[in-house]
């Protein structure tokens, strides 16, 4: 009996010891916010993707530390889904403890945060100059004339093409410059006939291609206000869906269901083109044996759509400061790094291939370098040039909601449902969903 | 007085001690279980984005009936339920009867092998299944090599086959779990009943349907209720194997709740309403199953 008692007591002591230890742990992390106004300032920052955003943040931190040794920045890597979840639950509960000072948010989601949690983000209008950045980035990062985000990477899209496969099919890269999707589909059929390879991959759950097509013509799933669904009678979306169906029915598409299959398809040489954002460059170059066989051409336009230009966007994100203790220090950090430092962007481009949206960065030396992997093409300069031409649209707060509804209707469309009915059904569903 | 009723005082003291023992559990359960449940119920009557919530009465519940994504999710969930649960329960019962055979060798090995899927992580097995059933995955390769199919089946990206893939996956994962319940119940059935049946000349099939099944009835009820609840809460497999697609062909109610809260612009009020719709469905289904099983 005594032994049991001793054991119980011992385990009790151990337990309390453990818990007091973890108590200490949390109190120091809380301290990061409290000490912000005193001597040394400590800031936390969240981002996803260790090789891209997190690395960019670390490089910015090093650049800033050289001039401001008294500010300590703790960079934490979280998956994007985790960041979205933590921000939502944290901001919704009304307690800002455990939330970072600086956070990266995807442009498509930015408005839903800015509008759902007014006052949760710090107004950066007086800190950075919105006109220093690519115009299309300002829509998602600002609300009611106030600039909340520091625009970061460009999601400028291009068409990555395999020169060797095109040549085997009787085409040259020049034939793909400044063409529309009808021409691309025609080329895709030739590629399939001559080489047996697919033109490109598509994931039926991901309508990224349609998003790029409609943004190239300055249209979106919602109207200018960002909340009225704009599906029915949207001639541009209609044209995009018709083109999408033509593409899918031409038997030139390899169907994938996730990211790794998507990357695997072009790394193993199963597809001749990849229409996507420039952030894919690193993944394309990962297959070193294909060096010299790739080129990037401007994004094709939508057929029969005069407003469609050879530039569009897919993804991309921006930095935000939370309206908590330490916001001034966090804002200053962003101002001096991502907000104005053109040299930093040169290094970012060299190290991780990132293309920023700061206009001043485009004239730097890294941006004009030739890339041997792409046969000496100056791809960064090309992308930077296209970035400035991307039509500005308001992504609003419902991009993913509407896309999920639309994905269902697109399946129906591919199975033979009339296009007008497809769009009006999607419209009426979107109207009941969005309040 | 003091000396008059020492017994009662002792009894009261004993009762008090009892209360103290369960107090911690009661407070914890109330604080972390019942309180959030009530809050969620209140939340289900509110609407708005993120933190700007306001009461709307029953609007959210009305919205459920015109929300086609929700209805599609309910339909999918019931398809899983109607096909997968009976298949799994029959399979589990069948395997457990085979494994209960006293003449069977390597019993321990077979039991472990069939139970093993249950200890794997939901996410890990889902990802393995996704690759097994991919367009150029092992299953398609096997079927083509055996000349059973000429073109690869789109297990993940075709609306019909995606459902089949999900059903195969959850059956693989949960059959062993249910089998364990049947096995333990079978071991409680007195062998003399079977002996008597054999002496009377009953065939093995007759023994199964006239002795085993009736005696397993409480377990059949238990496993079908837990499996029903499990299917209504299906999440990990869907998210990891098909992401609910293509379109919303495989989306489950739980995944829709997640999407409403975190994938779309946050609408926690409506998400809570959808959660409560699951509660209502589970209650109704459980009552039906109790009634159908008879015994009271």
Could you describe the 3D structure shown?
The complex is a heterodimer of chains A (435) and B (296). With 435 residues, chain A is an alpha/beta fold. Chain A has 16 helices and twelve strands. In chain A, the strands form four sheets. A five-stranded mixed beta sheet of chain A has the order 2-1-3-12-6. Chain A is globular, with a radius of gyration of 24 Å. Chain B starts with 5 loop residues before the first helix and ends with a helix. Chain B has two domains: 6-43; 59-293, MetI-like (MetI-like fold, Orthogonal Bundle). Chain B has helices at 6-43, 59-66, 68-99, 107-115, 122-132, 138-145, 159-187, 191-199, 204-215, 217-232, 236-241, 253-263, 268-293, and strands spanning 46-47, 54-55. Chain B has 13 helices and two strands. Chain B is flat and about 70 Å long. In chain B, 73% of the residues lie in helices and 1% in strands. In chain B, α3 (68-99) runs parallel beside α7, α10 packs antiparallel against α13 (268-293) and α12 packs antiparallel against α13 (268-293). Chain B has 296 residues and is mainly α. The mean pLDDT of chain B is 87. Chain A binds chain B through residues 81, 84-85, 88, 91-92, 94, 109, 111-113, 115-118, 120, 203-205, 255-258, 261, 397-398, 400-401, 404-405, 407-412, 429, 432-433, 435, and chain B through 47, 49-52, 63, 66-69, 72, 130, 134-135, 154, 156-157, 159, 242-249, 259, 261-268.
